[in-house]
Inverse folding.
């Protein structure tokens, strides 16, 4: 039940972290227009490379290491401060690199300096510690308050197309404040540690190992926006981000399991319980499949009308882009389960690194021809193929460690249920009145169709849900 509770907390936060800009984006897209939205997306994609240097794989590494030693509070405190020292040093190095970059970069310097607040915020991000001790409540409650305040600030302050810089500052400052709110809890959560006892450098190389896959991941997360901005237009970069925002909102419900399960599995690994580790993965993989299939088919079914209706006139290209990108919901769900929930806790960092590096290489190779010939849609197909290659590589890696029969036991049932749901909802979306009320009806019909079919096919998730209810009643 602790895992389920943490999953719900993490889902709540992940959804809020994305839904706040989604709520505001319907307003911002009309005020800043595609040009302003594109400028923010393009400059943010650049600052993310420097944030990558500052973060240096610490999110996954810190989460895992804290989970390993959380039974010993003194050792946990020592580990926390050693990792935080490395992170602070890396943030300073990243900011110096950014200042050198700005000596030569002359395009939209005002926007770039506003984006640099995001880089400062990285130094104060200690969410990895609370993820490691599986205390998701403190992360959710404190950051939720800050996100809501930032949403109110956007509606109050952003009034015309010239407010792009102010919009960037509001988003960046909200991130910084959200990170700062976690620090008061550290004094009561950790005992004091003498500075002389700290030795941060043994953590450096393991972080580098996890830094490499993070670089690879960021390449095919951010490079598409950067290349679209350079090869097509900044407006196309904005279209990509707005499509990505809606898809990632759906994806957050699925990938939240990775953040929750990583410390849980890592703790089981530290106790030498491999049978339990495999069983947890089979259940988690089935759960994310049960969620990912309907989300993939659902967002594809309504995308053509959802995007222009939500964002307003001028954003029609976002619809087809979303339909293409919806495929990554399933691919990332699977790779998150295998990579984050299995390979990383088992310390198989090289295999995890190789998988995301493969995806990055595929993305770089495909981006130039696909963006050249098909622009935004080409970038989307490049993203989809890259994510498919990551998932395929990871499946090859674990073929001797896991039973594919157990892993994909219920997958065909979710696929059939989701596909039928797609045809029903897509027909309604294409032939019935285009209104928010009708779209709400389409979503409800889709959920009901999928749920009924899953029940009729007796998918594994049905039995898991029944067992949880029985267990809860007994307690």
């Amino acid at each position: 039940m602790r895992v389920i509770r943490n999953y719900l907390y993490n889902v709540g936060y992940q959804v809020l972290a994305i839904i706040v800009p989604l709520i505001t984006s319907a307003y911002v897209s009309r005020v800043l227009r595609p040009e302003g939205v594109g400028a923010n997306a393009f400059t943010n994609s650049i600052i993310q490379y420097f944030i990558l240097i500052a973060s240096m794989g610490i999110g996954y590494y810190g989460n895992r290491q804290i989970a390993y030693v959380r039974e010993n509070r003194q050792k946990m405190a020592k580990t926390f401060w050693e990792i935080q020292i490395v992170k602070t040093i890396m943030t300073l190095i990243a900011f110096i690199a950014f200042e050198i970059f700005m000596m030569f970069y002359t395009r939209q310097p005002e926007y770039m300096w506003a984006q640099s607040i995001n880089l400062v915020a990285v130094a104060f991000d200690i969410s990895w510690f609370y993820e490691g001790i599986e205390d998701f409540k403190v992360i959710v409650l404190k950051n939720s308050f800050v996100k809501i305040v930032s949403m109110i600030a956007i509606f109050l302050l952003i009034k015309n197309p010239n407010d792009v810089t102010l919009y960037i500052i509001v988003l960046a400052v909200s991130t910084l404040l959200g990170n700062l709110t976690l620090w008061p809890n550290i004094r009561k959560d950790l005992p004091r540690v003498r500075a002389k006892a700290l030795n941060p450098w043994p953590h450096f190389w393991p972080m580098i190992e996890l830094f490499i896959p993070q670089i690879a991941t960021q390449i095919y997360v951010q490079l598409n926006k950067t290349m679209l901005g350079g090869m097509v237009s900044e407006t196309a970069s904005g279209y990509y981000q707005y499509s990505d925002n809606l898809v990632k909102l759906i994806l957050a419900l699925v990938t939240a399991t990775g953040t929750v399960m990583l410390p849980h599995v890592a703790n089981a690994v530290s106790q030498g319980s491999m049978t339990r580790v495999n069983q947890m993965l089979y259940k988690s993989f089935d759960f994310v499949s049960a969620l990912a299939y309907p989300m993939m088919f659902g967002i594809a079914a309504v995308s053509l009308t959802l995007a222009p209706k939500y964002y307003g006139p001028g954003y029609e290209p976002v619809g087809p882009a979303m339909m293409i990108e919806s495929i990554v919901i399933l691919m990332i769900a699977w790779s998150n389960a295998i990579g984050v929930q299995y390979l990383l806790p088992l310390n198989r960092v090289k295999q995890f690194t190789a998988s995301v590096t493969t995806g990055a290489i595929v993305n770089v190779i495909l981006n130039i021809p696909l963006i050249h010939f098909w622009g935004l849609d080409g970038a989307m197909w490049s993203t989809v193929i890259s994510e498919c290659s990551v998932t395929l590589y990871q499946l090859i890696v674990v073929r001797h460690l896991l039973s594919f029969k157990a892993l994909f036991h219920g997958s065909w049932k979710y696929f059939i249920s989701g596909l039928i749901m797609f045809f029903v909802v897509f027909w309604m979306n294409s032939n019935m009145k285009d209104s928010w009320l009708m779209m709400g009806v389409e979503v409800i019909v889709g959920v009901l169709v999928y749920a009924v079919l899953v029940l009729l096919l007796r998918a594994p998730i049905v039995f898991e849900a029944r067992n949880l209810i029985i267990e809860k009643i007994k307690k």
